[in-house]
Amino acid sequence: MIIRINMRTKLVKQEKLPDKYQLLGGRGLTSRMLLDEIDPTCAPLGANNKLVIAPGLLGGTAAPCSGRLSVGAKSPLTGGIKESNGGGTAGGKLAKIGVKAIVIEDQPIEENFCILIVSSAGVRILPAVGLEGKGNYETANILQKKYGAAVSVISIGPAGERGYSLASVAITDMEGHPSRHCGRGGMGAVMGSKKIKAIVVDNNEAPAILYQNEKLFKEISKEWAQNVIPLKKGLTEYGTANLVNLVNSLGALPTRNYSYGSFTDAEQISGEYMKQRIEERGGKPSHACHPGCVIRCSNIYNDSKGNYLTSGLEYETIALLGSNCGISDLDFIAQLDNFCDDFGIDTMELGITLGVIMESGWAPFGDIDKMVELIGELKKDTLLGKLMGQGAVITGKVLGVQRVAAVKGQGISGYDPRGLQATGVTYATTPMGGDHTAGNCLPGRTGYRPETKDKDFLSKPEGMVELAKDMQVMTAVYDICGLCFFLGPSEDDMLRIAKLINAKSGVNLTAQDVIGFAKQLIKDEVEFNEKAGLSQSSNGLPEFFSSEKLGPYNYLFNISKEKMIQFYKKDC
Amino acid sequence: MIIRINMRTKLVKQEKLPDKYQLLGGRGLTSRMLLDEIDPTCAPLGANNKLVIAPGLLGGTAAPCSGRLSVGAKSPLTGGIKESNGGGTAGGKLAKIGVKAIVIEDQPIEENFCILIVSSAGVRILPAVGLEGKGNYETANILQKKYGAAVSVISIGPAGERGYSLASVAITDMEGHPSRHCGRGGMGAVMGSKKIKAIVVDNNEAPAILYQNEKLFKEISKEWAQNVIPLKKGLTEYGTANLVNLVNSLGALPTRNYSYGSFTDAEQISGEYMKQRIEERGGKPSHACHPGCVIRCSNIYNDSKGNYLTSGLEYETIALLGSNCGISDLDFIAQLDNFCDDFGIDTMELGITLGVIMESGWAPFGDIDKMVELIGELKKDTLLGKLMGQGAVITGKVLGVQRVAAVKGQGISGYDPRGLQATGVTYATTPMGGDHTAGNCLPGRTGYRPETKDKDFLSKPEGMVELAKDMQVMTAVYDICGLCFFLGPSEDDMLRIAKLINAKSGVNLTAQDVIGFAKQLIKDEVEFNEKAGLSQSSNGLPEFFSSEKLGPYNYLFNISKEKMIQFYKKDC
């Protein structure tokens, strides 16, 4: 069913899922519903935007890593369509309750925040008494005490309440920590504009997921899991931070606001170093972010006293709040990660924004005291805090910084496109803005094309456009299903996914069919953006990536703008 | 000739005007050269943008009001193509020297500013010794002392040096005051990014303008002037401020950040009141902003001691720094105008930005002390000053204000589109961003269509799309020629203009031909914007104009977004 909630009238409707949406889920459903239902030119934080929350097509099932939850809306950061997905426990629970999507419409006139309680019994809208201004950790804690430790909480921190464009939506993990974030594109600000502080998901008494062929579904799932586990050893052992040394060696690790591609102190922020530290302090170097995850690339990072500090300290956070700000103190980066999770902030956008502020001369790179001051400005909602809250592009404009690594208003990620050209193409072309999660092309993760294992391959322009397109399409398949992208990507997966959908729903899809769904999804997103005024001509990277050589290997991004503009012109 | 100056290499080239540009001038030339020469996706303040300065096709001639100077570049405010034109003496002088355009390319690596000396002898590039950080008044004064009182000065103030997106380009008037501004779109910031503080134009020893048929040219000019003068009595007598009472009576005077359409104290900021005050203090209620102006809508406004305070106190300045900020003290508005001229700021963008800041709760509307404080922030380049320097849209985003009257990143003007629907269509559709100067549709100035004299006519949606298109096209004709729009608009003018071009250049144009030039110009600008990523889908007004009724007449802007998007889709 679709749950439709009007936040002005407080009317809740449960609608049968229309036939046309039957084989959609996750990003497939959020983007399609936004295209179908909202005016693409609407004000992102106004009454006419909608927030759509959807588990994947395989959400709640026994498929490995299938619990991701998509949150979509028109983005206050990019002005275009946005979907951001995260792990945690809410996606699976919503699927089990039978919720295909929660559509949040309009906005209240009054200023007070609400919470939503979603369960098999329906939806309740209650005042968010005592929660306003609270961080995600305290919010989750209060709600778990009230509604039971087993509930999932989807929430926003002060950043989302204030409408910061870098505000995330938090989802509680298996320990109840609000550590999983739909980080990108300011989805937290849209949730805040609807005056929703939190959504409690209670799947107590929910019926079991129905399969047309449960046995077959579980067989395929098991084979897949067994196949994946040995392939992902690096992720399991070191988390995504296993990329620090790799990307540093490629000369593509954002360093001091993307002015260099290698960080002298990379070793101190590497996955290997982090693992050792986590183990010494009794944390968990390998941790599943949601039930059914077989890769367990998350972690629990304790402080020096052995107390919980943060969870899911990831590569992008380390690269952008670390090397990109000249910071090599992993404990400090973990503290920042905890702050971001609690305050409800995208660590990537913050890291790029801080790098821009440092470049403006406000603070030297690597100055921890000054970074603490800057975080204080955010907390206190000072003018500088408000400015930071609008992300890197606006901060750069106001402070007069020209080198701002962003596309369509959104900061890119922890991969300098000069060293990783295909990821650069994804930044430049995805309807999601400068977002690696739409199709990241790394040596270890483009295994379906053996030649990409050659490290140098990805620093050369040849074949990158095609690679980026393939990766964006395959990524969209995982996103539709609520599957973690780290399962693949592989062409074998496309077939597995088709078979799983068939076994669950009694349809008869081929691998090509699911790829077709993904292509249609991207086409829908491109159409939305075109209608929003964000045409394909807005594809492209900032000029400096093509004019400033990136040391130490002196790479330039050398794929023509014309190719970026033409990228999605004809088809996907 | 075209003078091409590379600010990195300091190379100056004089090029023969290519045949294809022979019948272009002013905005026609700036926009066409930008489309031909720059990458529309370039960074506005980067090396790849160009600043093009061009007198009109009839610049320097005996045609009435023909001395306007166009300044064009990709705009840091809108991200699209921009042309802004102003009066003063430089346009005519450049034309007399034989300069069709000055094209300023690239940017220096060093930080120091330069000045350019343009004369019949050529171009010199000199260090701007002692001028950096100076206001336009002092800058002009120093340069006039050095190069002679008769030179014209085109300059930027501190705002342009700092790269503020609301920075204007100043042009000295007939008294040598830098009071005429190419205000819109941040052209001053682009000039600043090229590290040019001022351009001195010295037409000493310049040859006389050549006419193919001088006698005929002068006859047509004389007839035109004689025809215009009686039609424009209101402008001559009260300046553009004659609109205050009119627009107030239409219920379309922006008041307290566009929350109301009528201002209780309108009388105190009216043209009638201003005229009386100017006369009492020995100023000039009617003043020509450039040689050959027969309308003389400018003025010289003295302070209470009878000393010069500002010149060209105009309607838009009064509406946006006055009623839109809740201010009814005309002396204070005149002081602000002087500050803006000196600091090099667009009064309109500043007025809208201040209205947004007031709405955020920073200061009550009408609080002069607080406004003085805000101006102090700008002067001191504090963080709030820098934010204001980026204009209303970014200020609104950072301060969380939803009601921001802007289109394509640029604040609109002193005409609420709910009461003046056709002007609203122009804001929504012109490639220039929210800019009334691209085609303002007022009762007194749409005389070529008698029905528009009916005041109510312009508050209704019928016929507004067609009216706005006609006005945008006709306005472009005046802009190409360097003519003041206040001459018309009329269909008769199109014929007069064709005849004048014929008499000057020995061609054989019809009225339809010059209209064709204007249509092609707008088409070029739309093409530039499309390539810059600013598609026709970005046409449209902010949502609140269609959802919040404007008192006292409860007007809504009720022309569909679809019509705005389709406006220039097929042809001009």
Automatic annotation (TrEMBL), chains A, B:
<dbReference type="GO" id="GO:0009055">
    <property type="term" value="F:electron transfer activity"/>
</dbReference>
<dbReference type="GO" id="GO:0046872">
    <property type="term" value="F:metal ion binding"/>
</dbReference>
<dbReference type="InterPro" id="IPR036503">
    <property type="entry name" value="Ald_Fedxn_OxRdtase_N_sf"/>
</dbReference>
<dbReference type="InterPro" id="IPR001203">
    <property type="entry name" value="OxRdtase_Ald_Fedxn_C"/>
</dbReference>
<keyword id="KW-0560">Oxidoreductase</keyword>
<dbReference type="GO" id="GO:0016625">
    <property type="term" value="F:oxidoreductase activity, acting on the aldehyde or oxo group of donors, iron-sulfur protein as acceptor"/>
</dbReference>
<feature type="domain" description="Aldehyde ferredoxin oxidoreductase N-terminal">
    <location>
        <begin position="1"/>
        <end position="205"/>
    </location>
</feature>
<keyword id="KW-0411">Iron-sulfur</keyword>
<dbReference type="InterPro" id="IPR013984">
    <property type="entry name" value="Ald_Fedxn_OxRdtase_dom2"/>
</dbReference>
<dbReference type="GO" id="GO:0051539">
    <property type="term" value="F:4 iron, 4 sulfur cluster binding"/>
</dbReference>
<keyword id="KW-0408">Iron</keyword>
<protein>
    <submittedName>
        <fullName>Aldehyde:ferredoxin oxidoreductase</fullName>
    </submittedName>
</protein>
<comment type="similarity">
    <text>Belongs to the AOR/FOR family.</text>
</comment>
<keyword id="KW-0004">4Fe-4S</keyword>
<dbReference type="Pfam" id="PF02730">
    <property type="entry name" value="AFOR_N"/>
</dbReference>
<dbReference type="InterPro" id="IPR013985">
    <property type="entry name" value="Ald_Fedxn_OxRdtase_dom3"/>
</dbReference>
<keyword id="KW-0479">Metal-binding</keyword>
<dbReference type="InterPro" id="IPR051919">
    <property type="entry name" value="W-dependent_AOR"/>
</dbReference>
<dbReference type="InterPro" id="IPR036021">
    <property type="entry name" value="Tungsten_al_ferr_oxy-like_C"/>
</dbReference>
<dbReference type="Pfam" id="PF01314">
    <property type="entry name" value="AFOR_C"/>
</dbReference>
<dbReference type="InterPro" id="IPR013983">
    <property type="entry name" value="Ald_Fedxn_OxRdtase_N"/>
</dbReference>
